[in-house]
Input
Amino acid sequence: MRATIFHRPGQVSVEERATRQPAPGELRLRIAAAALCASDVRVYRGEKYALPGVVPGHELAGVVDAVGEGVDDYAAGDRVVICPIIACGRCRFCARGRRNRCASRRTLGYDLDGGFAEQMTVPRELLELGHVLRVPPSLPLEVAAIAEPVACTLNSLDLLGVRPGSSLAILGAGPMGLLHLLIGRASGAAPIVVSEPVAERREIARRWGADIVVDPESEDLEASVRAQTDGYGADAVAVSVGVARLATQALQIASRQGVVNLFAGFPPGATIPLDLNALHYAEIVLSGSQNATTEQYRRAVALLSALPQVSELITHRYGIEQAPEAYASRLQLSGLKSLVEFPGVDGR
Output
């Protein structure tokens, strides 16, 4: 089979890999689509670790084409997505349903082979954890591949406490910021203010229902947020771009008793000056979120069928031989979501 291999920061290649039969307890998938994540780009830049020689791709959907001995719950032809986390299932985080915080977790695409390949073997542990989720027949697998970022967005919005009537500010209208907008609007958040310097992305944010869209390079974001919130500031602020100064800006536009979530990952060693009294006296909660729980993955799969706009996030499509080009497009901030796809693999 053809597979994309991460060798070291700045170097990925497409190579031939052996195809093997699944061992007892495993599945094998034919990959239909795998999306490139900002975290994959951070690995490519050397800002985040991945095992040399690993196949990237943790946002994926595919069709079961072989099952190992002892696997009774899945059959060839099943359409599935993967929660890519292998957790221990025993630590206190796992016991609380927070497998994404398991201290010994391993993740597909970083520690084990992911979906940037024609086929992928699903480890036994993923099946035992219930991390292989069926896709409804009505949902195209290329859209189902976005289940992972949707689940991560649900985790962020849950942490932010977004509910009907919550005011929400989103810093950055890349793919993840736009998902915050789309799902935040579906959750009843209002008003929603989006800050984004790229005109094309501002236009999408307007079209997807932002109450106000701000160009932070020429407009006063804090004044815009306070004008939309009767002077209070935003109840919830999501930082969806890993630029340190945006964390400072997020704290400035948050309401008293507001919540700020650092959704994006930042370069190693990124810091900001922090006025501790500003947090203390305003009772602002500053947090971060990363990945998602199994339940949030299940919600994401169900939600995707009700959010047809998500398909608009896919702006660049590549065959497996062109997978390295997907990294180049993301480095240039060209478009939104890049997808490595395998035409004809859908299972419908």
